[in-house]
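ok trying again, last paste got cut off:
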Amino acid sequence: MDVSDSIVVPTLIEGLDSPSDRVRRFAAHILGISGDPEAVEPLIRSLTDQNPNVREVAAEALGMIGDLRAVEPLIVTLRDDVWFVRTHAAFALGHIGDLRAYDALVALLSDEHLSVRNVAVEALYRLGEGVVEPLLEILGDRNGWKLHGYARYALKQFGSAIIDRLNMAVMSDNHELSVNAICTLSDLSDERVIELMIGYLRIGHKMFWVSRGLSYIGPPAVKSLISLLNDPEIHDNTIRHYVSEGLNRIGTPEAREALQAHGFPLYSGNYRHSGVNL
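nice, full thing came through this time. structure:
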């Protein structure tokens, strides 16, 4: 069946009003594949179908078509009583990528179902870099700590493109934002991150979190940490202490050898995973 056929699409649209749940669901699915804008309004009406399986497929189909007319109706569908309908509405909004969905998707991060929350965070970063500043605001909100992990994950998806903005956040007077920015940076695979983190070690009140961040970067950070131990101009014992903590947590043979050479105690492997998680 050629879904681009001028006869097929009107027939499928009629199928959305079929008394058969299976037919309505099938029609919605094929209309999504067709990408035909004529299907948008009928599919929007199907978002209120009595059968949640039809609503689910209608939401998915609207995301596949990507028409902006679907944004507001899909935002309403994020409040559907059925979790998998909410999931597909979030997916669709992420695929369309309109920033009007931001607030509603953030609200969905508190959904009772894990699958809904996971799709919501994926949808957030698909909205584009316009969500970076609002996500950083979440990271700076002490009362919004339950959302911090989701916000950090969404920001991580932007990769190297937001390193400079995260660096600014680290230097913020907002402690919550600064710590979360360090945690986010530690998840990025970019050589610049190690250089920045080494610099942060010289900032007293950030040392604790930076040492953990470097340990989560892992072996790529070992040489830079060892170079700090070997630097004759660093006399600050606090810096050296946190460098040793980072090396202990990484725990590679090279790291442990350097610690021994400088007279630092070696901790058991379990030490790497104790304390505060990022």
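cool. The chain has three domains: 1-127, 129-188, 190-278. The CA atoms of residues 16 and 104 lie 27 Å apart.
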